[in-house]
Amino acid sequence: MRKTEVYQVRLDSQEKKQAFAVFKQLGISPAQAVRLFFKQVVLTKSIPFAIENQNINMEQLLKLRKSKNAANAENPSSIDVEDDHEDLFEELNALLGESDKT
Q1: What pLDDT was estimated at residue 43?
Q2: pTM score, whole prediction
Q3: What are the φ and ψ backbone dihedral angles of 37, each rounded to 5 degrees?
Q4: pLDDT tens, N- to C-terminus, the chain (102 residues)
Q5: What stretches of 1-102 show up as alpha helix (H) in DSSP?
Q6: For residues 35 and 33, what is the distance between their CA atoms, to the nearest angstrom?
Q7: Which of 16, 20, 71, 79 could staple 11 via S-S, CB 3.0–4.6 A?
Q8: Which domain does 45 fall in, by range?
Q9: Cα–Cα distance between 84 and 65 in angstroms, integer?
């Protein structure tokens, strides 16, 4: 048997109720739904649905990524894949925050 791990996540209570109702209609548990999601991520090596947000200015994001990549090219020993992913999410949050203010 494979080793399993516990992973916790915080959810908006209303979204949780709505999602759990859908799972019930589909005849699956929330845990099964999460496992299905993870399985699809592994199989497709991507998020298994389109993620779109009209508030994200892709040109701004690409400029931020290019400048980050240029900085990493100058100092390759500082590159950490996990930090790089965290940086991407920080950049996305910054762009979303900027668009909320406009």
Answers
A1: 95
A2: 0.51
A3: -60, -50
A4: 889 999 899 999 999 999 999 999 999 999 999 999 999 999 999 988 887 766 667 677 777 778 777 777 776 665 454 555 677 677 777 766 654 444
A5: 13-26, 30-44, 58-74, 81-101
A6: 5
A7: 16
A8: 1-50
A9: 10
pLDDT value at residue 101: 47
Q: What is the CA radius of gyration of the chain?
A: 18
Q: Say if residue 43 is in the same domain as residue 5.
A: yes
Q: What is the CB-side half-sphere exposure of residue 84 using CA atoms within 13 A?
A: 14
Examine the domain organization and report whether 3 and 39 are in the same domain. Answer: yes
SS3 assignment, position 10: coil
Pair of tokens at residue 100: 């909320």
Same domain, 6 and 43: yes
Q: Are residues 72 and 31 in the same domain?
A: no
Place of tokens 């497709």: 44
Cα angle 42, 46, 50; round to 5: 135
Please tell me whether residues 40 and 67 are part of one structural domain: no
Residues 75/102, Cβ–Cβ less than 8 Å = no
